[in-house]
Design a protein that fits this description.
- The protein is an all-alpha fold and 303 residues long.
- It has one domain: ABC transporter involved in vitamin B12 uptake, BtuC, CATH 1.10.3470.
- 72% of the residues lie in helices and 1% in strands.
- It is built from 12 helices and 2 strands, in the order H-H-H-H-E-H-E-H-H-H-H-H-H-H.
- It has a two-stranded antiparallel sheet with strand order 1-2.
């Protein structure tokens, strides 16, 4: 039982890593008043660009860098429609998801062809920081990106709640008119938030291809982007609670994988649906008392 629990915690951290990156990215967007439904497509593009760059250059970190830069591209695209033109944010976000997904699928076929055998790379190796401990050793035998994701939680908290940039960001998400009257460029700040958010989302997708799997498949993201939309509400737009939400989903995902190995005579589809069912239940409970940014979904037009 002890080894089972240790393995479960270790797997939870690994599964939660892309959710932490992407949900923190969504936090920047929504704190600025923009609902970015392009998470799924941006993560997919990050998985593609990260894998492709790592495969062509032989450098995994170059793959992460290219995914980071590639994700930044989605920010100005989303900004053009939702910030500058004032297009409905739901439509803009879905358009970004469709665009980034289409670009990824097209680019993958152009670069790698229609091979039946999918190309693969040697992924990141796990780094153990407590190798001498029987308990902490396995738990903290994680990818470097997992440690980076965990370190981002306090960093994002500090940026959002303890810096002038964070104050302006929250102000734009709550009252863009007053922010504009104070001499702060609402359009620019919202665009910056979308660029930061897109970069983090893309790194979350790249984690799947260059660390967890070492390959790129068309179903690699598997709805994680939509889960992040739910997690940000569960977290009430707070970085620390993002961690708990990601660990909740990751823990249930890890648990269902292990329950399938116990021989329980239940449809495997039920096991696969379990993490999403738990996420919906948690969202339903937490969403009743959620404190939405006041200007979320409201386009701003300067008088």
């Amino acid at each position: 039982m002890g080894d089972f629990l240790v393995d479960l915690i270790a797997a939870t951290l690994r599964i939660a890593t892309p959710l932490i990156f992407a949900t923190l990215g969504e936090l920047f967007c929504e704190r600025a008043g923009i609902l970015n439904l392009g998470v799924e497509g941006t993560m997919f593009f990050g998985a593609f660009s990260g894998f492709t760059a790592a495969s062509l250059t032989g450098s995994l970190w170059m793959g992460i860098l290219c995914a980071f830069i590639g994700g930044m591209i989605s920010g100005p695209i989303m900004s053009l429609f939702s910030v500058r033109l004032g297009v409905n944010q739901h439509v803009s976000g879905l358009g970004v998801t469709l665009l980034m997904t289409a670009l990824s699928l097209f680019g993958f076929r152009v670069i790698f062809g229609e091979n039946r055998i999918l190309p693969s790379i040697q992924p990141f190796q796990q780094l153990s920081i407590f190798s001498g401990s029987r308990v902490l050793g396995p738990i903290f035998s994680q990818y470097t990106l997992t440690y980076i994701a965990l370190a981002l939680i306090p960093i994002v908290w500090w940026v959002v709640f303890r810096t002038n940039f964070g104050l302006n960001l929250r102000s734009v998400g709550d009252n863009p008119e007053a922010t504009d009257a104070a001499g702060i460029n609402v359009y620019r700040l919202r665009t910056i938030a979308l660029v930061i958010g897109g970069a983090l989302m893309s790194v979350g997708g790249a984690y799947l291809s260059v660390a967890q799997l070492g390959s790129f498949t068309f179903g690699i993201v598997a709805g994680r982007g939509w889960v992040c939309i739910a997690l940000i509400i569960f977290a009430n737009w707070h970085p620390v609670r993002v961690l708990w939400g990601a660990l909740l989903f990751g823990g249930v995902q890890a648990l269902q994988s292990r329950l399938q190995l116990t021989g329980l005579k239940l449809p495997y589809e039920l096991f696969l649906a379990l993490p999403y069912i738990v996420t919906i239940i948690a969202l339903t409970i937490a969403g009743r008392n959620a404190s939405y940014p006041a200007a979320l979904l409201k386009p701003y037009k300067r008088e």
